[in-house]
Every structure is written in structure tokens, then in C-alpha cells.
Specification:
This protein is an alpha+beta fold. Helices cover about 25% and strands about 35% of the residues.
């Protein structure tokens, strides 16, 4: 039985690649969570895609037993969080389940954009923070400079910062002692009514829905009848357990502890993240405040290349949604691409991960349309509508104005790249808000339209600064914009999958690029094909794909050849006109993918 004062709940937060999962490995190894034989690198990154890409996508929890140097026994509950901006929702949930955080900063790279974003989330909920300077074994490590940066940029004291190396294990003992010394124990009363926070849930094919919980007050027992306060549903607990990091069954979870329960729930939508769980026989009056629901910010269409795989795609999306409630999907049909789904994601990496998992785990060949954001349409009759798909834009005469989502971006960069970063932000219609320096690194704050950023901004930023700049954003709301729907016509037929919302000032240049790209990618037919970009009824760009020219005059010799040639050429002309009228232009998959890549090549 654990005393609540001997428990420490903490999250590991950092920028991407600063060593969160490696340090979690060292802590697990040091506390004997796994044997030498069971240990492997990034042991908490369980998905194949996490291990291949070297990133954490899902936050993972571990319960460890630790005996301090003074001989006291402690229970450590660690949550290893993702570092990428698309998964910041996972981070915020994890932080709510803890009282403190270990902030890991790469001592060769210093403070980066995601470091700032995650540490501010932790400070907002009054976390105690231990700074850890990782990668001290590398020759480029500079502890004094990194400490100074943490103090100047983040504003937290580094007098108790711990230098360490996740690779060699140096400094791990000091981190464990600092956790005991600096981080507070959880506040909670064991003999109170049960009050429990639902932190996360996922689907297991053997157990049904597994629910990760943090017990605030009281205790949760096997065979106890519980109630979910948001749905008023009651369930009986079948299994109570903790991750060590292997799942281990126990009989009860007490106040201050983190563990998992299963109740035979089969549908993930019955377990709302941030919900309050209480004792059905002694219910609570007030629920915990919970979390803000995650809202998809990027939308795109997913279509199977082979239309017979539609059902397979539908089943695949439903299965993935069981373990990732943050993406949404609904059926849509396109005249060019057939039946598919309109899907919402938290960002482009999230989109990439989901499409890769669909292709890999369910063996579906996919076609993805241009990613877009959600616009707010203010209609003349006072109604406000959300627009996810540009092809379903109503008649522009019915719209008073259109609003687009804007973000607040934080970019941290070595100062030699500052000029080119400011230029790219200006080109993306950005408004500079702030510029500060820490040593030779600049911290810039910009307000930018999400539509301009969502596609290729991060890639261009990385390539322009040799990978040294880092970027993080948060959505700040919607603002009115001079936006128009640009349609693409191939052989005078609109291709709905290529419709896009663009700013009026950039419409012509984007239209010209799309038409040029399609001209190269659509194969020649027997007839001439016009490729046009249009806003409403006005054509703003055009390219022409020339038709095959069959030589029909080779066999003509002798008298009257001139008249016979004329006759044959006229006949060929009529045939081409007829095939242009009735012929169907097949747009290959490469053409759609090519148009998606236009901005990246720009």
C-alpha cells in the first residue's frame, strides 16, 4: 500500500528529438521496470511507425518503484509525451494528470519552439519544472549557453538543472533524486468519495476499450460499479492495472495514482477524454473541469485508387479512429475520383501518419486531395456556415464575407537566417508581432493565415535554414479575408477534386502554375485539350495539351493529290472535333499528386 506523499507523477516534455524517449528508457532501466533482455531503444514507442520515424505519437505511461539514496521507497508515474506540434493535444492531456514536469533541452541545440510551447502549457497549470540538459556526451554540448537560454527565453531558474546523457546514462541518478526532492506529491484524500479523471482511452482487440485514469480522491477497485459523469452510463470494472511498462493487474488504484481499467466497453465514443469517473453508489455533485475537445484544423479527401477498395477504406478509417479520436471522417463523392471520405486532422504530420497507416496496415492504395482548412461563411441572411470542401462553396452572391483561421506562430532561428524567414512570412500574408534575441538566436512571433502555413511552410523553413529553425503555432481565431474559389477545368469540365480556396491576390499565379503542371502530367489524347483555371465564370489562366497528329497523307500519290489531301484533312478535323465533344479525358493519379506538390517546389 502506497502512501500518497511517496508518489511522484510527472511528464517528460521537450522539442522533437531532444531525447525524451531515450531518457524514459534510462529511468525504466535504472528502476528495474524491465530486465536487461526486455530492454530495447525507445521501449515506449510501441507502434512500428513511431520506431521507424523516431518520433513519439501517443503518450505512454509507466509506473516504477524507486528507492532513494536515503532508503525511502517511492512510486514514480512517468508519462512520455510527443514533441511534434500536431500532437500537442496529447501533451496537454498528459500534463493534467501530473503535478510536475521534466523539461529536457538538447545542450547542443538549445531552446526550440516546441520547448517553449510545452513548457508554457506546463506553467499554465502550475507545474513544478526540473530542467534537464541532455546530450552532454557530444562535443558540441554547451551547458552554460543552454542554461542562459533557458533563463532568458523561458524565464525559469536553472540553478537546479541536471546535466545528463540519455545515451551513456550519466546523470540519471541525479534526475531521480531531483524528482523526489523538487516535485510535489499529489494532493488527494484516500477515504473521500471516488473522483477520477479519464486521461486517455484506446481499443484493444482482446479487452475492448482500455481507459487510462488518474485517481484524484478515493480509490478504484476491481468489480466496483462506476459512473461516467458526461454520459451518466454505469459500468462494472473488470480489470484494474498499471504499466510497468508491461501491463500488470492489481486490485485497486488509490488517490494520486495513475493506472488503467477495463469495463467491457466496446465503443471508444462512450469514453470521453477528460470525463469524470465516480462511484455509482456514491456519486459526485460536480464534475472535474476536463479538457477542451480537440478540433481538426486540416481537412482533405481520401479516395481509394481502385474504387472496389471503398469498403476496405471505410473499415480501415473506423478501426484507426478507435485508437485516435482526434481525427474525423465523413463520406463524400467526387465526379473525378468516385467515392471517398472527407477527413479532418490536427495537422499535416497527423494526416501523413494516418494515410501511411491506412496504406501499411490495411493495404489500401490511396489518393489524397489538396489539404485545406475550415472557413466560416457569413451569409447575407445572417447564417454562419462552416466550409471544409471548396467544391461545395455556395453561390458567391449569397455570401456576405468569408473568414479564415489565423495562427500565432513562434519561430526560433539563428540570426543569419532572419531576413529570409521574415520574407517568407511576408509572402504568406503574415503580420509581425514581436522579435527578441537570446545570444545569436532570434525569437520571432508572427500572425499568419493557417491556409498559407498548412501546406509546406515547415518544410521550406527547414530547408531555408539548414534545419536550424524551429516552428510552433497555436490557433487564435478567424479573420475576414479576400478569398475566392479557384476551379480547374479540363476540356471545359470542372475537376472538383482540384478546386481550392485562394487569396484573390495570389489566384492568377497559382492558377498558372497548376495549369502548367497539369499540361505536363495529363497524357496526350487524339484531340486538343484546354486546361483552364477559373474564378466563377472568368478564366484566369490557360494551357493547351496538343493532340496526337496522325499522318493521313502518306499513301496519296499521283493526279488530283491536292484535292484528295484536302478532303482527308477535313475529315480528320471533323473526327477530332467529334472526339473532343464526346471524348473523356482520363486524369492520371500522378496529375493530382503533382498539383499537391506545386507549393513545395515553389
Amino acid at each position: 500500500m502506497s502512501e500518497i506523499d511517496n508518489i511522484r507523477n510527472f511528464a517528460i516534455i521537450a522539442h522533437i528529438d531532444h531525447g525524451k524517449s531515450t531518457i524514459a528508457d534510462r529511468l525504466i532501466h535504472k528502476c528495474g521496470g524491465l530486465t536487461e533482455r526486455e530492454m530495447k531503444a525507445q521501449v515506449l514507442d510501441s507502434m512500428d511507425i513511431e520506431r521507424e520515424r523516431g518520433i513519439t505519437i501517443k503518450a505512454q505511461t509507466v509506473k516504477l518503484n524507486y528507492t532513494s539514496k536515503s532508503g525511502k521507497k517511492f512510486i514514480l508515474n512517468i508519462i512520455d509525451t510527443p514533441g511534434h506540434v500536431d500532437f500537442s493535444y496529447e501533451v496537454s492531456r498528459s500534463l493534467y494528470a501530473c503535478e510536475g514536469s521534466i523539461l529536457i533541452v538538447d545542450s547542443t541545440q538549445g531552446v526550440e519552439a516546441q520547448t517553449l510551447a510545452n513548457v508554457y502549457q506546463a506553467l499554465d497549470i502550475n507545474h513544478e519544472i526540473i530542467p534537464v540538459l541532455n546530450k552532454t556526451d557530444l562535443p558540441a554540448s554547451d551547458l552554460d549557453k543552454t542554461n542562459k537560454q533557458i533563463e532568458e527565453v523561458i524565464g525559469i531558474d536553472t540553478s537546479n538543472a541536471v546535466p545528463c546523457s540519455g545515451k551513456t546514462g550519466e546523470g540519471i541518478d541525479e534526475i531521480l533524486e531531483k524528482i523526489i526532492e523538487v516535485l510535489p506529491g499529489p494532493k488527494g484524500i484516500k477515504n473521500e468519495k471516488l473522483k477520477c479523471l479519464l486521461v486517455d482511452s484506446w481499443y484493444d482487440s482482446y479487452l475492448g476499450v482500455v481507459i487510462l485514469v488518474r485517481v484524484i480522491d478515493g480509490k478504484i477497485l476491481k468489480n466496483m460499479k462506476i459512473k461516467m459523469m458526461s454520459t451518466n452510463q454505469e459500468y462494472i470494472i473488470e480489470k484494474v492495472g498499471v504499466f510497468t511498462p508491461k501491463p500488470k493487474d492489481i486490485n485497486e488504484l488509490n488517490a494520486g495514482e495513475i493506472g488503467f481499467i477495463t469495463t467491457g466497453i466496446k465503443v471508444l465514443s462512450d469514453t470521453k477524454v477528460g470525463d469524470t469517473i465516480c462511484d455509482a453508489s456514491n456519486p459526485l455533485q460536480d464534475a472535474l473541469p476536463g479538457f477542451k475537445p480537440s478540433k481538426p484544423v486540416v481537412f482533405c479527401g481520401l479516395f481509394p485508387v481502385d474504387s472496389s477498395e471503398y469498403q476496405k477504406l471505410k473499415d480501415g478509417l473506423a478501426k484507426l479512429q478507435l485508437n485516435d479520436a482526434s481525427f474525423s471522417f465523413e463520406p463524400e463523392s467526387s465526379s473525378a475520383l468516385g467515392l471517398g471520405f472527407r477527413c479532418g486532422f490536427l495537422g499535416l504530420l497527423h494526416l501523413e501518419i494516418i494515410t501511411e497507416r491506412l496504406e501499411r496496415e490495411f493495404d489500401i492504395n490511396l489518393l489524397t486531395t489538396t489539404p485545406g482548412v475550415v472557413y466560416k461563411l457569413h451569409m447575407n441572411n445572417g447564417e454562419i456556415k462552416d466550409l471544409q470542401n471548396p467544391s461545395s462553396l455556395p453561390n458567391p452572391t449569397l455570401i456576405k464575407f468569408i473568414e479564415e483561421p489565423w495562427i500565432k506562430a513562434t519561430i526560433i532561428t539563428p540570426d543569419q537566417y532572419l531576413g529570409s524567414i521574415i520574407k517568407i512570412c511576408q509572402n504568406k500574408r503574415g503580420v509581425q508581432k514581436n522579435l527578441t534575441y537570446s545570444g545569436n538566436r532570434a525569437v520571432i512571433n508572427y500572425e499568419l493565415p493557417l491556409n498559407e502555413v498548412v501546406f509546406d511552410f515547415n518544410d521550406r523553413l527547414k530547408s531555408m535554414t539548414s534545419g536550424y529553425a524551429s516552428f510552433d503555432y497555436e490557433i487564435i481565431g478567424h479573420k475576414e479575408g479576400d478569398l475566392v474559389k479557384m476551379g480547374i477545368l479540363v476540356n471545359s469540365e470542372p475537376v472538383d477534386a482540384l478546386a481550392m480556396m485562394v487569396h484573390k491576390d495570389f489566384a492568377q499565379s497559382i492558377g498558372r502554375e497548376v495549369c502548367e503542371k497539369l499540361k505536363d502530367l495529363i497524357p496526350k489524347h487524339n484531340f486538343m485539350i484546354p486546361v483552364q483555371a477559373a474564378i466563377g465564370g472568368k478564366i484566369i489562366a490557360r494551357e493547351t495539351i496538343k493532340g496526337f497528329k496522325k499522318d493521313v497523307l502518306t499513301k496519296i500519290h499521283g493526279g488530283g493529290a491536292r484535292d484528295r489531301k484536302r478532303k482527308l484533312l477535313d475529315k480528320q478535323k471533323k473526327g477530332k472535333a467529334r472526339s473532343k465533344q464526346f471524348g473523356k479525358v482520363e486524369i492520371p493519379q500522378e496529375a493530382f499528386i503533382g498539383v499537391l506538390k506545386i507549393s513545395k517546389e515553389n
